[in-house]
Amino acid sequence: MKKVKTLLFVDDEKEILDILVDLFKDEEYELHTATKAEEARSIMKKHKVDFVLSDLKLPDDSGSDLLTDIRNNNPGTIRVLTSGYLDLKFGNISENKEDGTLYLSKPWDLFTLKQLVEERLEKSL
Amino acid sequence: MKYPQKVLYIDNDNTQSNTVKKALTDSSFFCILSESGEAGLKNILKNRPDIVFVNDSLPDMNADLFIKKIKTQPEFKNLKSISYILISSDHKINSSTLNKLGYHSCLKKPFETSELINFINNILTTKYFSNSSKKLKPSTPNGKRFLESILESSVESIFTTDKKGYITYCNKACLKLFKYKFEEFVGINICELLNNGSTELLRILNTIKTVGKLTNYKTELMQKNKEKIPVSLFMSQMKDIDNNIIGYLALTMNQHEDLNKSSSQRSEKLAIILETAITVNHAINNPLVPILGHAQFLLQDERIVDEDIRKRLNIIINNALRIKNITQKLTRISKPVSKEYIKGTKMLDLDASI
Questions:
Q1: How many Å apart are CA B40 and CA A51, to the nearest integer?
Q2: Which of A80, B54, B104, B312 is the least buried, fewest Cβ under 10 Å from its Cβ?
């Protein structure tokens, strides 16, 4: 039986989380959302998360620090940092070759994001 | 305690003398009056004035005899710093005649009291600069000290030279700029400061000779450690009361500081723009996520077949992306360039600023 992949989305704006849930709800994913870094850390402890997408600016911490913690504690988790301030064209993804963190500029192209999740999870199998 | 400049006025015309005394006293000078040559000589020894005015028609001796006594009598030997001014109605008297007589200058009669005050101030200034190869003594009377304090308070570098360009005086700002000590700086020729030496000095002096002054001349002057500093140089002739050139007055403005200042102002302006850009990107791009996302969802929805609705959804997406591109450009500004938005109002020229 194929194991269901777990996705975690972290952003303090509920409407953004809703869009992400809408995008993946019909697929075979276990979906989690968090509006704060601490909430995300708590979910990470309880679940084996395969993919996490976090906003850079969170109310209680930076998304960058959150993803660093996740890399240290869960090296296999695919990490995407997103922000309105990243200087990337619509639909483009950038990758930090040293630590493997992916960068996606807001607003994203939904289909680029969906494709990214599918491809990266496929690779990690 | 401050000491006013002492002026001895020797004239037997009491009305004129009293008018002069009142005007000088009102201008903070200490005025002593004498009605005759003999009384005047006694007052010189007693009061040691800074300036002595001698009327050319005194009852007991003429101006020629008066000055001869000063020059020959031993008791006046140590009073060399006094300026002797002839008051005369003879308009033919020139500086050569005066020098032969032994007077420093001549005040032509009739004169207004304001003319007299200006005349005295000119003499004191000239005396100040002609004595300036030595640092002024702390006990220098009020006028000189006042003049020195003005020069020393200046944030701009000021120095004087003699006719050949040898530095005769400089203020503190000058020493700071050129990194010299006073005793090192005074006596050197301005050629040593100029990047192109005597050629440049000759060019400067020719300009001053032609147009009377040198203004905002951009050059590089050398500090003691031979480091060059960009300056704006202003120079003018210093003349004595007979209009003879006695040297040059120079003022230098450090362009390096101005450049740093304007560069720092530009950096501050850029920093504010970039902070604004971050705020705008954060504040605009987050709401664009649901706007774009929902529009994309609707376009994917098979139930929406109406072409007009699909066209409108595409317009929403395209304009949302246009906003994203503009906010993104804000973060790439490296040199803000303005353009006219409407008459009298400017806006950033985004493409030119990147």
A1: 107
A2: B312
CATH number of the domain located at residue range(s) B6-130 in this protein: 3.40.50.2300
Give yes or no for residue B263 having a pLDDT over 70. Answer: no
* B187 CB within 8 Å of a chain A CB: no
Instruction: Calculate how close chain A gets to B293, using CA atoms only, in Å.
Output: 6
Q: Does A107 touch chain B (CB under 8 A)?
A: yes
Task: Quickly list H helices, B135-254.
Answer: 142-153, 172-178, 182-185, 197-211
Residue of B nearest to A55 (CA): B286
Query: What pLDDT does B3 receive?
Result: 57
Assess A114–B contact: CB distance below 8 Å, yes or no: no
Average pLDDT value for residue range B274-281: 84
Residue pair B29/B47 in contact (Cβ under 8 Å)? The answer is no
User: Would you list the DSSP string of A66-118?
Assistant: HHHHHHHH-TTSEEEEEESS----TT-EEE-TTT--EEEESSPPHHHHHHHHH
Whether pLDDT at B52 is above 60: yes
User: Which residues of chain B neighbour A85 with C-beta distances below 8 Å?
Assistant: 278, 281-282, 285, 331
pTM: 0.47
- Rounded-to-integer distance, Cα A72 and Cα A93, Å: 23
More confident call, B171 vs B80: B171
Chain B neighbors of A108, CB-CB under 8 A = 289, 292-293
Do the two domains B6-130 and B142-255 of this chain adopt the same fold? no
Task: With CA atoms as reference, report the closest residue to B127 among B161, B81, B160.
Answer: B81
From A13, A18, A23, residue closest to B286, measured CB to CB: A13
Q: Which of B289, B296, B331 sits opposite A106 (nearest CB)?
A: B289
| Domain span including residue A66 | 5-123
Q: For residue range B7-48, what is the model confidence (pLDDT) as tens digits?
A: 999 998 888 899 899 888 888 888 999 999 999 999 999 888
Average pLDDT of chain B is 82
